[in-house]
Amino acid sequence: MDTEDQALCRLMKDHDPAHIDDAGFTHRVLTALPPPRSRLATWRRPLLLLTACLVGMLLPLLIDGPAYLGALENLIILATQQPLLPLGEASLGALPLACLAAGLLLSFVWVFRALRSH
Amino acid sequence: MSLSDSDLIARVLVSDDRHAFGELVKRNHSALRGFLRGLTKGDHALADDLAQEALIEAYRCLSRFEGGSSFSTWLLGIAYNRFRSHQRRRREEPIDTREEHPSADAPVQADHRPATEAGVDLEAALQSLCPEEQAALRLCYREGLSHDEAAALMSCPLGTLKTHLLRAKERLRTLLQAYA
User: Which of A5, B86, B145, B151 would bridge with B161, disulfide CB 3.0–4.6 Å?
Assistant: First the structure.
């Protein structure tokens, strides 16, 4: 910083503008702030998704448990013993599992974010 | 015992304490509004509107404040960006009612006058600069920011900031010659 810079710096610091009165400004800002976010609102989204995933998993079990488990078992057998399953069938079988996994992952991410924000 | 800015920020973040945010507003509004009054060439109503917008944005983005600079400096950065957005919006308006930017030798007026003659001259001279030059000078010489910090805060390249500073100093030298 050269001498001119130092002089300018001193001048600017020495001659700060006069203090501006609040005159209701703080109140005006506080009333314009967004409404407080309730804790419930933070948790609503992950909780809804998590519940939907769990209900989606449990509902078929309650309706027809043995058939659902049998279907799952067949799917696992197909996946492990026939690796060259036609693409259409494979994706059809994998779709519900992929949706479930994505839903669970998303729920956990939201839960993590909600925990961090609190 | 008064709490530090970082304590107040922590209270706002943890428990959405609006009294704590109010305290932050009380501590910083004068500098913020003064800075914006300079940029808006003394338009108090506009400066206060922009200050309010800046404070609300600061409240929303408080979790992004990393403490690299002081809270007041961070606020000035937000305010400057708000001012620039406002300028862009005005440029896009079909009827341009902006005042011409006063030239270096045009008479200048200060609206919030500091106590001394030198202060009056300086404030008047500062208000005659273009907003970018004014902001660069205030951030570097009044707030004591480094060129890198000021450039980051003003979202402009370092070279551009240095150009603003050079031009501002050149113009100030001319304007303040009478006082010297």
Answer: B151
In whole angstroms, what is the distance from residue B69 CA to residue A90 CA? 55
Q: Kindly state the tokens that stand for B79.
A: 């305010």
Q: Looking at domain B115-180, does it have CATH number 1.10.10.10?
A: yes
Using CB atoms, which residue from A11, A18, A19 is nearest to B122?
Answer: A11
The fold of the B1-94 domain, in CATH, is Rna Polymerase Sigma Factor; Chain: A (1.10.1740)
Given an 8 Å threshold on Cβ–Cβ distance, is A8 in contact with B172?
A: yes
Quick check: B25 and A12 CB within 8 A? no
CA of B147 to nearest chain A CA: how many angstroms apart? 11
pLDDT (tens digit per residue) in B37-90: 888 888 899 999 999 999 999 999 888 888 777 888 899 999 999 999 998 888
Domain residue spans in chain B?
1-94, 115-180
Of A12, A32, A118, the CB nearest to B142: A12
Contact criterion met (CB below 8 Å) for B49 and B98: no
**ipTM of model over 0.90:** no
Domain ranges of chain A: 3-117
Nearest to A29 among B56, B118, B142 (CB): B56
> Do B74 and B58 form a contact (C-beta atoms < 8 A)?
yes
Please identify every stretch of chain A with a pLDDT value under 50, giving residue numbers as ranges: none
